[in-house]
Amino acid sequence: MNPQIKEFWQHLNKFYLANISVVAAVMLTIILMFFVQFKVESLQDEVVKAESEIAAFEDEIQLLEVEWVYLTRPERLRNLASRFLQDNSYMLASQIKDEGRLEQYYLVSYKKSEEKEENEVALSQNFKQSELEL
User: Fold this and answer.
1) Which residues touch 76 (CB under 8 Å, ≥6 apart)?
2) For residues 68 and 47, what is the distance between their CA atoms, to the nearest angstrom?
3) Residue ranges per domain, the chain?
4) Pairwise CA distance, residues 106 & 101, whole Å
5) Mean pLDDT on 58-68
6) Cβ–Cβ contacts within 10 Å for residue 105, how many?
7) For 48-62, what is the mean pLDDT?
């Protein structure tokens, strides 16, 4: 072969190699952009779902707050207290003469509340540990 033709083909091969490299890089970029776009759309769907769940929980909280206000109206509580707390053996503050007598009336409920608080603390610690494990 003629050296000029050989040199021309080598030069042409370099040109094709450069073009093929550029085309491959562009195609790889297009494919990667497709996957990134798919992931972004997936994350946007998750955000919309989370926002709708948050809105539902906020509505539920608002409903529960309204229900709490309704159930704890002073006139309703007075009515319930007069109906169900007639003979409850509770003492008024003015009836207390000796602090030692308080244990006689409230010791059982105090022990129950301590056990309940201990259970709540244990549950919250278990919940925190399970969150850390995730």
Assistant:
1) 70
2) 31
3) 1-88, 91-134
4) 9
5) 93
6) 13
7) 96
Query: What is the average pLDDT across 44-68?
Result: 95
Q: Report whether 96 contacts 102 (CB < 8 A).
A: yes
First to last CA, the chain: 70
| DSSP string covering the chain | --HHHHHHHHHHHHHHHHHHHHHHHHHHHHHHHHHHHHHHHHHHHHHHHHHHHHHHHHHHHHHHHHHHHHHT-HHHHHHHHHHH-TT-----GGG---THHHHHHHHHHHHHHHHHHHHHHHHHHHHHHHHHH-
105 and 90 in contact (C-beta within 8 Å)? Answer: yes
Query: Which residues are CB-contacts of 90 (< 8 A; sequence separation ≥ 6)?
Result: 105
Contact 125, 109 (CB under 8 A): no
pLDDT in tens, 98-109: 666 655 555 455
Rg of the chain over CA atoms, in angstroms?
38
